[in-house]
Amino acid sequence: MGGYDVIYNGETAVQMFGSLGIDFDLSEYQDYYGPEMATSYATCYVAYWWSSFYVSDVFNFVLWGAVGLILLVGALRQITNRLITGRLPTPLRKFQTFVVKNIFLSSTFGTKALEPVSFIGAHGALGRWTSFQIPTRIHSLLVGTYVVANLIMIVAAYDVPRPNLLYQDLGYQFEAYARYASDRTAILAFGATPLVYVLASRNSPIAWFTGASYSTLQIYHRWVARIVYIHVFIHSVAWTVLEAIYSDEEIIYQFTSPYWNWGCVGTAACAVLVACSVRRIRELSYEAFLIGHIIANVFYIVGSYYHVWYIDPDYKYLKYIYAAIALWSADRFFRFVGLLYLNLAGRLFTKSSSKKQTLAAEGYLVGTGDFIRLRLTPSASWPALFRAGGPGSYVFISTPGFKIYESHPFTIAWPSHMSSPDHSSAGSSSDSDKQLALTSVTTFEETEIENEHSFELILKSYSGYTKRLAEELAGSDAVEYKEGVAFPVKKIKLLVEGPYGAGVRLEGFQSVILVAGGSGISATIVHLADLARRVNEPGYRVERISVVWAIRQTRACDVLIPYLLRLQHLFPRDVPSDFLTLNIYYTGETRQTLSLDEEKRSELHASSLAEIGSLFQPVSTSFASLHVRHGRPDIALHVEERIQYAEGTIALSACGPSGLCDVSREAVKARLGGKDGVDSDQLVYHEEAFTW
To answer: What pTM, to 2 d.p., does this model score?
Structure first.
């Protein structure tokens, strides 16, 4: 449609009523306007209906059709990925490598896809407040398409007939455009609201079908939510302008209307949702973000619902609010059932000793107290589909009490249904003083795993929840020895929810590179455990494993060593001496060391590296070769070494700080394609990062 001549096309407009589903009785206007003017009025009404409703309905239909198509493509990709990997003809493999390198692994701009950057190039506090995440090109392509399509819908495809019997004021064109834009943006906001909720859900069908990580879904959740807010803002401003300029009553009288007041509630709540989700606020106070989101979410849904309900209780656009409520309720229901099953089923439905395991967890501080090891024992076994809780899996944990609403995600470090630790070797060390100290405390290596579905986590004590948890565990008496402190195991009560995440399996690759930073070693450990569990399976092909770990404290080694002592008894004894290579990078620097001259700093670094070497001595000779260096890891060098000296396929999995993951992704990307590069099915990159 566009620019109707109302006189000559009036009859056509009337005929369109039935085909377009417009409920409009023209007879009452024929007596008032006359037949000819009545048909002109009909033309104006069709233009209004087209601009305000039809275009919006078509867009929402296309939006959800696109979501369905993405689900279908994602599901087919998961099914066929293993079948076609390495079997494509050479031209298709080259094209696939080009797409993976330039679309899936490339940041939209520069080299950072996880590490936030300031959009004004600022540093310091201002840089942190103006920072945002630049996604990879595939995400930018999808997000950009959605954003541009919505912006086009805001400004285009309007039809304002001249003259206009619906808007007869001298400024009728502005009034018509304001009314059309107000209606359209409201419908677009409603249509996308269920998508905001399904993207935020922990039990999202999108994650089930596509295998997308929670962090990936959060990228889309935030952008769709921002667009919804833009629509809500335009709708509110446009309608306010209409009432202020063209209404016969003062705008203050609108606040006597329930529909108006509830609209204001929904708009304000939407603004709070966007404000609370600012990255810096999430970093400074996760609780403010979480509480603000929960409360504002309720007001947004209630306000939006009653805003429309007071206009027409049977209005068809309420279906989007019902869908959003249904999706949110379903997610909460499944989460609640999961919490009951994993944390209370043993108490409610069994008479065995598993009652002791209700809400059961135990943990202790590691090294200097910067790391926490937790062993959680659900009161019931995970369903068979999730039983492994292996690589790529994570759980949410919370503490029963006032802040039970606050739960935090952590990667599983030691999966359930694994062999018990070997107590004879778990505590071995050449330091007799340390051994004497450790005899008076209990560690996980000295306690039998009583329940086969127990699993373990590794946490880094930062601030907020992890800091409070560390303080609780530090309440026990610690035992000192000349090199540090031994913290005893303490019983605590924790609620566990999960597991979530798409499983990642690496046993089909000839070489595996596991990159970690700090507590990201959890992902490395669970990969090693999973490989040890599958070592005798037919599809197992791993010949070399290289671990690259960046740490800031020498005593962080106490986190990894116990697991290596377990693993050396799970892998075959006849593995080659270079089967597992440990590359430890010590990056620790303090203000004191930075103020020293170069010679003294070198001496301190050498002493730290020697200490790390001595800590790894129990495993570095018999099970793994050890390389300790100072400085940040050169991931590209490790990738190049594997390509040069290994045969077959290579997988690199990274978990840790955003900067380390970006460097790892770039290292893989640099070796794909080109004259001397490899194909994307020969060098595969996987990333585990919590960026929300």
So the answer is: 0.86
